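Appendix B, Record 12. Input sequence as logged:
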Amino acid sequence: MPRNVSGFVAAHYLHKLPAVVTLSLVMFVLGKPKGMVLYALPPRQTAIRYGGATWELARLYITDDVPNNAETWLISKSVKHIKVNYPAVDFLVSYADPSAGHVGTIYRAANWKADGMTDDERKSPRSDYYDAKTGKKYGRLGHVPEGVAIEKRPRISKYRYVLPLNRRAK
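Logged structural output:
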């Protein structure tokens, strides 16, 4: 069982931290760490999209031995914590990745609003680049080392969910 945030991140399906973590919270059950939620700064365009300071719920992980609905409970507690301790944050946003079997059930259960798909407004879908030999993924062509044979694959659009946190954020 993971003992700290980095252990939970390693157990999460993405296996990595987001770029800029703004808040990390660990859930304890009977004194033992059983889950975590991480908030991060989203891309700059996200705050423009919603018209106020926005954080992204970027990682959520709870061990399998915790009862049902723990994810929604942890999200709810984290939202209350943010409202009290970070009043300048106007919106929270998160994404559900259908390629990992996620459709946003926990966000809907936590009263977040569905806000379309990540590629809804794009003229062309985004792609990732993979090393043809090793399968290593590169999010941008500029990150691919020189001489690596690549395969370009379209990125799967994710479900987007948003939660306004205060009256001015509607």
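Strands lie at 21-29, 32-40, 54-62, 91-96, 113-117, 127-131, 137-138, 150-154, 159-164.
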